[in-house]
Amino acid sequence: MPLLRIENLSVNYQGSQGEFPIIDRLSLKMDSGEILGIVGESGSGKSMLALAIMGLLSPKMNMRADYINLDGEDLMKFSDMDRAAYVASKAAIIFQEPLASLNPCFTIGSHIDETLMFNQTGSRKSRRLRAMDLLESVGIFEPELVLRSYPHQLSGGMNQRIAIAVALASRPRLLIADEPTTALDVTIQSQILELLVNVNKTEDLGLMLITHDFALLSENTDRIGVVYSGQLMEHAATDNILKSPRHPYTRALLDSIPQMGDRHIKGSRLFALKGQIPPMDQLPVGCRLGPRCPIAEKKCVNPQEFLSIENHGKVRCHLAPQKLSRAQSSGDKENDK
Amino acid sequence: MSLLSVENISKQYSVRKKYWHKRERVDAVKEISFELKEGQTLAIVGESGSGKSTLARQIIGIEKPSRGRVIYLGEELRFNNRKNRKTRFRNIRMIFQNPYESLNPQARIGDILEEVLRINTKLSSKQRKRKVANTLVKVGLLPEHQYRYPSMFSGGQRQRIAIARAIILDPKIIIADEPLSALDVSIQAQILNLLQQLQEEMGISYLFISHDLNVVEHIADQVMVMFQGEMVEYGSVAQLFDNPRHPYTQTLFASTPMYQKRFPHFTRPSFAKRKAGANSGCCFASRCSFCSPRCLQSQPVIGKSKSGNLVACFKELED
Description:
The complex is a heterodimer of chains A (337) and B (319). Chain A is built from eleven helices and 13 strands.
């Protein structure tokens, strides 16, 4: 029984110029204890996916889905109020900007207490003890002092730890981390990531790690989903994606990161996708990567099916059954390994 | 003779921690010296607050350094000297981090670029127009883009405009302050390629400020690592990326996923454990896992280690 199962989730934006799609029929599955990475550029709809699961979309967004099954219950069948209560007890989200996600007017203690009060009864004393436990479990050494402080008195890394503690307070089964380390320094980034992975192991919860940084996902995730302009382009195990990506977009993303040991050589260039991500109201016909794709051909003007490929995963490209060679980027980069 | 050399540059700010407190001196940059050779790239690496951007501001002349000298082609660039400022602004240009903020939203692209020429050169209006069009082509945009406003462009295109503004005077040095960090991954590669292409065509030297180690390894010739305003390690890419010596550099590598495989024995950074004396002692002592009593008392002076890097660490300099 999977922890989270989404079938054909679509999110549309109702703008003044009509409706256009933000997420287009996205399906995915997650087990508990699993780490799922979601990669994509900004504007690809990866954050909207997180908000849609949590039910935090703005009223201008319309959401449709066959079902969103979270820990055994279909979210689409609930009324709005019931849904919010159910999601709050089962899932939690961490946002990118820790200072923006904490309320500057309240102490850390009251942040955590609010979530605890919502999810469990208990005396004030027992809630306080639990809050101290939580802070210790996210690696804060002086919980009593921190409980009394306000967010502006703490550093970015500390605030992100607190956001994680607040998220864990409800004992969620699913933890969504939406770019949890983008606003932080490299050294802090690795600490926060390590913490998230530890939490995933000890609490046996599902962790959805949304990021634009492939390097971050390579070490920790079990599976990766690649999102491009609202569509899931490739969804497969991490090893498969990193070693033999089948979708040209995944290939291009991996090639555009400088490889380790790739030193400054005159005339050497990285592989770069041409152009930029299309605006959602001006999507190309057929494959959405089409105009930017280095190996596009005539057939690409047809809408692409999400194909299952044996021993790999699912890919939205009709060229995927043949193995993609690295040839597309040769000439740009000679020192490939 | 090196193109640009910086000697013992320091910057102190006087700040009040709370408004009823006395003003205190904070060292943003402490005694940094380096040389930049023609056509080369020097990367500056460090976490936020380590003084990377402050150093860049001293060199380009936005702020006056508290001590130290900036020497360009054998001539000292003084902060208040009008002639010096002219050579400085003509030959040292800057690209800022966020292209959404560094371009005036009310000016057309053509005006943004032409203004630079109008102030710094004696070209006629026709020549300026031609130069603007040529520069736009050079950075991969079209000449007709000069009639548009910045809001009509995407992040990558805006960064190209910022680069066009930097190269339009054919400068010798460009200071790029985290030029990639506000951009998407696939756009980052485009901009990185453009920077390298311009360097090869025009022989520009870059002072490339970044915290992204794999980008630095890809583009740089020399690397300088900064921590709390001090230079803790300096060396060529080969020396520094094959054999980093300073404990802080090692923690940087240990916390970047891609390099964890290359250096599996480096320890991850820990929380601040001990309080180092305010002004005495090594700047990294509070977080260093090799810290000895000596590190808390006196400050290591940067010197050559066995592997050829310049390192500021007692452990490396002794044996």
